[in-house]
Each structure stands twice: as C-alpha cells, then as structure tokens.
Amino acid sequence: MTRAPDAVRLARIQRRFGEFATEYAALPLYSTVCGHVARDDETASLLLAARPGQARPVLWLAALHHLVLCRPDLPAARWYPSVIGAASVPPGDPWPDVRRTVLGHADELTRLIATHGTQTNEVNRSVYVAVGLAAATVDSREVPLAVVELGASAGLLLGVDRYAVELSSPTGSALLGDGASPVRCAGEDRSGVGALLTGTGAALPPVHGRVGVDLDPVDLASVDEMRWLEACLWPEVPGRVERFRAAADLLRGDPPTVLRGDMVERLTEAVRLARTDAGDDAHVVVLTSWAMTYLPAARRRDLVAVLDELAGTVSHLSWLTAEPRGCVPGLDGHEDPVEGSTVLGLRRWRHGHALPPTVLGTCHPHGTWIDVSLPPAAR
Ligand SMILES: C[S@@+](CC[C@H](N)C(=O)[O-])C[C@H]1O[C@@H](n2cnc3c(N)ncnc32)[C@H](O)[C@@H]1O
User: How many structural domains comprise the chain?
Assistant: First the structure.
C-alpha cells in the first residue's frame, strides 16, 4: 500500500486535533492545546513520526505529558495539574509555553511518538469491577475467590479488593473493598446496588489468587514503563493521576503476576496459577475489562471454548465482562446500553453447568457511574 504524502497526512492529523478540541472542550489544557495544534503545522508535524494507525492526538499529548513529568522545570509543565497540582495551575493561555517546549524538544518528542502507542490501565474501573465481583460471588460467598484478568496491562485492577470503592446514590452511599486504603475509587451508583450488596452482607470478598495475561504487560517495577502509562492519562481529570500513582505504590511491594502472551492461549495456565494461590476449590472469576474489543470475532469464540473446557475442572467459574456493546459472545441481543457506555456482563458455570448469561447493567467506561442490578439467581 502506498503511503499518503506528508501534506495529506498532516492535514488529516490537524483535522483530528480540531475534532479533539471540540469533543473535549471541557478540558481547558488539552482542548486549548489541540485547538492550536490544529492550526500550527510545525507542532502538528511531530505526529507524522507515529507508527501506522497510531497518529492520533492522544499519542502527541501523551508524549508531551511524558516530557513534562520527566522535566517539571520546562515552561509547559506549569500548566499540568499532574505536575504541579491542580490548585497551582495559573489562569491564562498555556499555548506559548507549550509551543516553546514542544519545538525546543522536538527530537525527544518525535522519538517517543515513533516508538510508543497509547496504553490504559484505569484504576477507577475498580468501581464496576468491585460491584461485578460482588455480584458474581453472591451464590458462593463461602468459596475462596481468585481473579484472572485478561488484557491486564500493569495489573492494577487485580488489586481491587485492596482499594476503597465508594458508591454514592441519592438513597445513601456504600463502600466496597478496604475502607482504609490510600487508593480511593468513586462512582455514582444510579441503581442503589451498593446498598443492596452491603445490606445483604454481600460485599466484595478478599481475592486469594490474582493473575493477569497481557500481550504487552507493563512492569510495575519499571520506572520507564509506568511513567509512559501515567503519561497516557489525561492530567486534567481530577484525581485520575493521583489514583494511578497510589495504586501503583500500593501494589508494587507485592505485584500480581501478569503473564505475557495472548489471552486465549494463556488463559488455562493463568487459571492454574490462580488456583495454586487460592486453592483448587477456589471460585475463579475471569475478568475482561476493555480487552475483548481487541479480539477478532473468531478469537472471542475461541475464548468461550476455553472457558467451557475449564468449566469441566473448575467447579465455580465466572466470566465478568466490562466491554463495549457487542464484544461478548452470548450477551449479544441482551444489551440495552447507554450510548458509549460499558456493558457489564456475567457468565457463570457451576459444577460444569452453564447458567444463562446475564447483563448486569451499564457503566461509564471509567467507572464514573454505574447502573447495575444483581444476577437473577442472586436475588
Ligand atoms: C485498553 S487496555 C485495558 C487494560 C485494563 N483491562 C483496564 O481496563 O484498565 C487493553 C489491554 O489488552 C491487551 N491486549 C490486547 N489484545 C490482547 C490479547 N490478544 N491478549 C492479551 N492481551 C491483549 C493490551 O495489551 C492492553 O494492555
């Protein structure tokens, strides 16, 4: 395939910056910067170095965020809440400082853009993971829990029971996980499921085995890898970077194992390892959060086949899914999602028998809100 000439690619790139600025107008720094880059050839052209399919404004923004996280002395850094704290960001236009920093470090930024893609491991997704795990275990509270996350990235969601998950609803609030944790996750509970869970004593059980699988795992002990993951976060979303840092600090001393490889190929081994830690009688909950979306349809069916096979040897097996609509075989046609939301689904196998798949509800992709009910057999 012949590559479009740079002028055509640059025009496309700048159009994307313009669209980003409009779509995320609520973010003062990122929307202002993208609005300027959309009209500034010199700064926009850095993104021409991106690998095929990666030339998106978020990669450019991540590279610059990485630079200011490493070099808080640079002029652009004073506009980043993640660098100097939200309360210290001055009023005014960040663009002159940002432009100076970008052009003064064009080689370094180009190198980052040419060698990286954006990655996410969003700790606040623990809101829907905690509720989903509590729902998955209501019929097996006495059985030790093991969690296997497919597409785990740095494995931060595997620490869910070590975080405080605060659910607020008009009828009251509920807390799942460890209330004393330095990692605070929070979501609006639109259906009052939190109070229902805590009221019936069905809180989030402790996790006795935690294993992840990822094509490209991020090592919690690697300063470079973690800084890039942090740089991919949007610095202006309140609490997001702080939560990420707190979770990484908490888990670093005892990090979950994350196997490198394809999730279908390594699922069986990951389950075996999780049962080694939690015991052969453990309830294994396989979790996929924004990971099925990366698999072609045939591989999604392969994954279900592996789960069906595992159900022959694992007496309590569940699959908790938090994915965009249409990514999970067996849940198609059951969904009634809010546009752009995450569908929280549950498939369960008990003593070798598959229970009917259940859509628990919908959530914000980062757990900002949830609208979830308990699975039928659990009521
Ligand atoms: C959007 S991230 C989600 C990370 C985490 N689950 C979360 O919700 O924060 C998707 C992850 O899936 C991984 N991934 C994509 N395809 C995969 C595959 N076939 N096998 C294993 N991991 C995969 C990617 O490397 C990436 O780390």
Answer: 2
The model's pTM: 0.93
Query: Which domain, by its residues, includes 95?
Result: 6-115
Mutation pick for ligand 1 pocket among 58, 185, 216 (CB with most ligand atoms within 8 Å): 216
Is the residue at 157 inside a domain?
A: yes
Q: Is 302 in the pocket of ligand 1 (CB under 6 A)?
A: no
Amino acid at 192: G
* Whole-number Å distance between alpha carbons of 62 and 42: 18
Of 58, 84, 115, the residue at which a domain comes to its end is 115
Same domain, 332 and 183: yes
User: Does any ligand 1 atom lie closer than 6 A to the CB of residue 213?
Assistant: yes
Task: Say yes or no: CB of residue 291 within 6 Å of ligand 1.
Answer: yes
Give the C-alpha separation, 352 to 138, whole Å: 18
Could you report the per-residue pLDDT of 279-317, keeping only the tens digit for each?
999 999 999 999 999 999 999 999 999 999 999 999 999
Measured at the CA of 248, the angle between CA 244 and CA 250, to 5 degrees, comes to 115
Does residue 294 fall inside a structural domain?
A: yes
| Counts for the chain of helices (H) and strands (E), in that order | 13, 12
If asked whether residues 206 and 241 sit together in one domain, one would say: yes
338 or 375: which carries more pLDDT confidence?
375
Q: What is the pLDDT of residues 241-275, one digit of tens each?
A: 999 999 999 999 999 999 999 999 999 999 999 99
Q: Is a pLDDT exceeding 50 seen at residue 379?
A: no
